[in-house]
Amino acid sequence: MTFSLITARSRRKRQKRGRLARANWLYTQQDVQALYDVCRNTVLNWMKYGLKSIEAERRLFLGSDLNAFHAERKRNAKTPCGRFEIYCTACKSKHSLLVESFKVETKGQFRTRVVLTCPETGKKASSFMRESVLDELRHTLESKSSAETPV
Ligand SMILES: [Zn+2]
Predict the structure, then answer these.
(1) For domain 7-76, is the CATH number 2.30.30?
(2) How remote is the CA of residue 92 from the centroid of ligand 1, in Å?
(3) Fewer C-beta within 10 Å: the chain N or C terminus?
């Protein structure tokens, strides 16, 4: 180790979520949790957001897939939110209203707020949304769920 203790410690803190996995290694879910210092739910949530995994007797993650997922997520967090996305200050990433369940709170006549619970931190994230966008969101969700459930 060439860093001083303090540098190494702050580096470690800062890098928790920015860690690089070894590209050609396979990680179990427990390995992934340990690598990024996150809980099981977080890993499952990452999978909902597109983290690839290999379905074996035990679920496995390829290092390069982990790196690609986190690089993409980091890039994504810097771009403005899409219409159906809410930026979460707790986990510093965006949550899609097409993926997470959410609650609609109306305040007054024109202020409609959409609230969701961050699946990674349990904190609330919210955003004001226009009725027209909300309608569109509901519509998209309806057609999505009817496409998934054969009639
Ligand atoms: Zn979050």
Answers:
(1) no
(2) 6
(3) C
